[in-house]
Design brief:
It is a single chain. The chain has 699 residues and is an alpha/beta fold. Among the domains are: 57-154, Beta Barrel (OB fold (Dihydrolipoamide Acetyltransferase, E2P)); 255-285 and 301-433, 3-Layer(aba) Sandwich (Rossmann fold); 465-621, 3-Layer(aba) Sandwich (Rossmann fold), CATH 3.40.50. It has 24 helices and 22 strands. An eight-stranded mixed sheet has the order 12-11-13-10-14-15-9-16, covered by helices on one side. A six-stranded parallel sheet has the order 17-22-21-18-20-19, with helices on both faces. It has a five-stranded mixed beta barrel with strand order 2-3-4-6-5. Helix 4 (168-181) packs antiparallel against helix 6 (201-209) and helix 6 (201-209) packs across helix 7 (214-244). It starts with 26 loop residues before the first helix and ends with a helix. The structure holds adenosine-5'-diphosphate (ADP) and magnesium ion.
């Protein structure tokens, strides 16, 4: 392989030189840069500013007002240092005059200032203006002597994420050296750049650190964001292509048998359920691995679609696996499917760490007994947790693997599955998630997956009634809840924090649990559930809740994942302003799973217009997609996906909000991919992609 530098430049290494080779950057500073993960010149160039200050206009001193952040330009008339006993440090004072007036500049503790500035110097000063009994002054401003080219004044200047002992001025100084030193070569084809309207990479790099105008900066951002998004799209296309190289069993569609299955359901499938099932049935026919994500709001009926596929695979003598994130969810799936397939002779097995059985029998099986049954080919559908992959179960004829409540298969998961297959065979993959993801966002996050969406809810659902509640309404709300509990219904209380903290004034699970269990609800069975508990304990509590043995469950956000508690018809969310809309929606999905009307009450600890506006939207909509779009607009993607999973792409400048640019990047990636099937024409591009993929593999 050729030696490739981070800049995508073949053979020259200037960008990969260490930052410590920059002049004036001593060893001591090197360690500071290390803290910022900046080790090479290229790292430094990619350490983009966090914001900018417009210092292009210089303010005449007589126009300056206290409280403003300004740049002035004047001659130093006086400069003197004295010891301040009150402050126990040296105070240096200067008087600066610009013909319109004069102003005092004060430095505390900076003994070097007299070495760099002298009376008579023409100097720019930028900073905030203060006023005391002697008039206006600037305290410890940034300064730069007036010369032809200016780094820190007279322009739009960049400000960086710093660490202790490093200043913006130093950053600008070293970045400007790095810009001069590096000879970044263009790696995007001219035609693509002109089609999309992108500036050259070297110019973009200069402009992102030292823009000539705001427009110049926007152009630079566009180019650099595009680069990030384009590479991600290419990576997805490459992953897709690699999967195509594997063979998978091909399952012919037998419409008659499927119709028989659908006809036996106690309800009519929705159109979206039918459409996504059909798309996947076609995938399963193709002879190479399906790699699909089924998205559907809580309660949209993803399980039955999965069941249909597994049935289809079972009819053709292959095995399917359905994995759930928790043991209790696995048990629920097992029960649902056993019921669905009650009239059909399909062997279904439940396999978790602590429990194994097969349909039609209550007997608990040992791992060995289970393995034997599987080996004899009687079991066609396996339901379980990840234990299914960790244990050395021998699964012959694996055709389809489904993960529930997960977004994609991890590299490790895939490998562990692949190792059970013969030769270059791969099973088909399906992941299912209730997290609603707008299309452009899903292109970035899951570009390598085909996506099916179930938007439509099954008919006859009663929408959950949601209400913002005031603290004064507590008694009334509690009375209302008691009324429901007395009719054998159950209630969830969701809280933002586990323990009380002095810093954040939010209701904690602990306090709310104590308050409710000895107070208003002392005659009811109240329990709590937090992420800190052992998973066995969590499972046990969730199982008791599902079985109706608990009246009120006070929990943190751990209840997010899809367990079905049909008796739960009421939910209180405390500190609801702390959650994103998409997350609130996931909570709310825990109730409303029976034919009874359900209710959700939102309490807040902090009222503001923003909070009210958001919660109103939540009151009004029960469509996860709409809520997710609002989230993305109002709070950005971090909230939505921050906790979702690993493998979240490392975007420095681009964001999931850059909808138009995402589409452009995708189109360009597709075109390029098609025009260079042998990956020979654009070596610089493929080299960049290599670097990106290596990074992901190392993570
Ligand atoms: P999720 O997509 O959240 O996993 P489930 O698959 O658990 O949703 O389905 C929620 C409930 O809706 C289940 O009780 C299921 O039996 C029911 N259901 C699924 N599809 C339909 C439909 N087309 N009509 C009526 N009820 C349905
Ligand atoms: Mg589900």
């Amino acid at each position: 392989m050729q030696v490739l530098s981070q800049c995508g430049k073949v053979r020259s290494m200037s960008c990969d030189e260490l930052v410590t080779t920059l002049s004036g950057l001593a060893k001591k500073l090197g360690s500071k840069f290390k803290k910022l993960s900046v080790e090479t010149v290229s790292d430094l160039l990619h350490y983009y500013p966090v914001d900018y200050q417009d210092r292009r206009s210089v303010m005449p001193i007589d126009k300056v007002q206290a409280g403003e952040v300004v740049t002035i330009k004047g001659r130093i008339e006086l400069l003197q240092a004295k010891r301040s006993f009150r402050r126990k440090t040296t105070v240096t004072e200067a008087l600066v005059n610009d013909n319109s007036g004069s102003m005092r500049i004060v430095w505390f503790g900076n003994r070097f200032i007299q070495k760099t500035l002298k009376p008579g110097d023409q100097v720019y000063f930028s900073g905030k203006v203060h006023e005391d009994q002697f008039g206006l002054q600037m305290r410890t401003p940034e300064h730069e002597k007036v010369k032809e080219q200016s780094l820190h004044a007279n322009s739009i200047v960049a400000r960086y994420g710093l660490t202790k002992g490093l200043t913006h001025k130093q950053m600008r100084f070293f970045v400007s050296q790095a810009l001069k030193k590096s000879d970044m070569q263009e790696w995007l084809p001219e035609l693509m750049r002109s089609r999309v309207g992108l500036m050259r990479i070297d110019e973009a790099m200069r402009a992102i650190h030292a823009p000539k105008s705001w427009k110049h900066l926007r152009m630079a951002q566009k180019r650099l964001k595009f680069d990030e998004l384009f590479l991600l799209q290419l990576r997805s296309l490459l992953t897709k292509e690699e999967l195509l190289a594997f063979s998978s069993p091909s399952f012919e569609v037998d419409e008659k048998l499927l119709q028989h299955f659908v006809g036996g359901l106690p309800y009519q499938l929705t159109d979206d359920q039918k459409k996504s099932a059909w798309a996947m049935l076609l995938d399963l026919k193709k002879g190479h691995p399906m790699n699909r994500l089924l998205q559907g709001d809580v309660g949209s009926g993803k399980t039955v679609v999965a069941a249909m596929l597994m049935y289809h695979v079972a009819l053709q003598d292959s095995v399917s696996i359905l994995m759930a994130p928790t043991e209790i969810l696995a048990r629920q799936h097992f029960e649902t499917l056993s019921e669905l397939f009650a009239d059909m002779t399909v062997g279904i097995g439940l396999y978790t760490r602590s429990f194994r059985r097969i349909n039609g029998s209550d007997e608990a099986l040992t791992k060995k007994q289970f393995g034997n049954l599987l080996g004899h080919g009687g079991l066609k559908i396996l339901i379980g947790t990840h234990a299914l992959l960790h244990d050395p179960l021998k699964i012959n004829d694996l055709g389809l693997v489904i993960v529930d409540e997960q977004h994609r298969f991890g590299v490790k998961q895939r490998r562990s599955i692949k190792d059970r297959m013969k030769g270059d065979m791969m099973p088909h993959f399906l992941s299912m998630t209730a997290t609603p993801i707008p299309r452009s966002a899903s292109l970035v996050l899951y570009g390598e997956l085909d996506v099916s969406i179930i938007r439509e809810k099954p008919k006859g659902r009663k929408p959950i009634q949601t209400k913002i509640a005031k603290d004064d309404d507590r008694d009334k709300t509690y009375k209302f809840i008691k009324n429901h509990l007395d009719r054998d219904r159950q209630c969830f209380v969701v809280c933002p924090m586990i323990e009380d903290s002095d810093v954040i004034d939010a209701a904690s699970v602990q306090t709310v649990f104590e308050r409710l269990s000895v107070g208003s609800f002392k005659n009811y069975k109240v329990e709590m559930l937090t992420g800190k508990m052992k998973s066995k304990q969590k499972e046990e509590i969730m199982a008791r809740m599902a079985a109706g043995e608990i009246d009120i469950l006070v929990a943190t956000s751990v209840i997010e994942v899809g367990v079905d508690v049909p008796g739960a018809t009421v939910m209180i969310i405390e500190g609801s302003e702390r959650f994103g809309l998409a997350q609130l929606h996931q909570f709310r999905g825990r109730i409303g799973r029976s034919s009874h009307q359900s209710f959700c009450f939102l309490f807040t600890t902090k009222e503001s217009d923003e909070t009210n506006y958001r919660l109103r939207i939540f009151e009004k909509h029960d469509d996860g997609f709409i809520l997710a779009q609002h989230d993305l607009k109002m709070r950005g993607p971090g909230d939505m996906y921050g906790t979702v999973q690993s493998g979240f792409p490392d975007l420095k400048l681009a964001s999931l909000k850059d909808v138009a640019l995402i589409e452009l990047a995708q189109n360009s990636a597709k075109k390029l991919f098609a025009s260079d099937p042998n990956k020979m024409r654009y070596p610089e591009i493929w080299a960049k992609l290599d670097i990106l993929r290596q990074k992901v593999h190392m993570e």
